[in-house]
Amino acid sequence: MDEAHQIIVGETAPDFSLPDSTGTPRRLSELTKHSMCVLIFYRGHW
Amino acid sequence: MADYAKLYNDFRAAGAEVAAISVDPPDRSAGLRKDLAIPFTLLSDSDRATIIEWGVLNAAEKGGIATPSTFLIDRERKVRFAKVEEMMMRVEPRAMLEFVKGLGNGTPNNPRPRGVSPATMFLRAMANGFRYGVNVKRNR
């Protein structure tokens, strides 16, 4: 782990805009608009 | 990921969306989504900006990938759960071998020298194991 700061419980999560698998930009604030969101970071294929 | 795919409907029923982030480009995510029949959103953080901002960059592998981690974000965007996989804290096999060897001196198959109590043998084995572990770290 390089970064000193990790997101911890109680903080406001920083918003992001990232492309989904169709290339469409998606914001965290949209994902959490109607319900909570389980956000998983995974290693990926490559 | 496959487990989250299986449980996705349960998460929805419990009031949560699911989304997953990796450095994979969108076309790679599309392939994974199809292969594992993943019903939720896969997001591509190709430049690692979000992964770095969230403090989950594993810079040591493949030019930088996400450290497996799980967060729960509520509707006010407050973090309700956060768990980042920790580095493996496993005893080195060779250090374990040395420890076993040390204990072996006290077994019937390998009788201990006279006049040395089992407690002393144990402490000696512990000391050997510890010493060995210290040497391993120093050599890195």
Percent in helix of chain B: 40-55%
In percent terms, what proportion of residues of chain A is strand?
25-35%
**Mean of residue pLDDT values of chain B:** 79
Quaternary state of the chains: heterodimer
Largest sheet of chain A: 2 strands, antiparallel
What does this structure look like?
The complex is a heterodimer of chains A (46) and B (140). By secondary structure, chain A is mostly beta strands. Chain A is built from 1 helix and 3 strands. Chain A has a two-stranded antiparallel ribbon. In chain A, a hairpin with a 5-residue loop joins strand 1 and strand 2. In chain B, 44% of the residues lie in helices and 19% in strands. In chain B, strands 1-2 form a two-stranded parallel ribbon. A two-stranded antiparallel sheet of chain B has the order 3-4. A two-stranded antiparallel ribbon of chain B has the order 5-6. Classes of the chains: A mainly beta (46), B alpha+beta (140). Strand 3 of chain A pairs parallel with strand 1 of chain B, so a sheet runs across the interface.
Task: Give a brief outline of the structure.
Chain A is mainly beta. Chain A contains one helix and three strands; from the N terminus they run ββαβ. Chain A is globular, with a radius of gyration of 13 Å.
Task: Throw out a few tags for this protein.
heterodimer; A: 46 residues; mainly beta; 1 helix; 26% strand; globular; B: 140 residues; alpha+beta; two-stranded parallel sheet; two-stranded antiparallel ribbon; 5 helices; 44% helix; elongated
What layout of secondary structure does this protein have?
The complex is a heterodimer of chains A (46) and B (140).
Chain A: E1 17-19, E2 25-27, H1 28-31, E3 36-41
Antiparallel strand pairs in A: 1-2
Chain B: H1 2-13, E1 16-22, H2 26-35, E2 41-44, H3 49-53, E3 57-58, E4 65-66, E5 69-73, E6 79-84, H4 93-104, H5 118-139
Parallel strand pairs in B: 1-2
Antiparallel strand pairs in B: 3-4, 5-6
Helix pairs in contact in B: 4-5
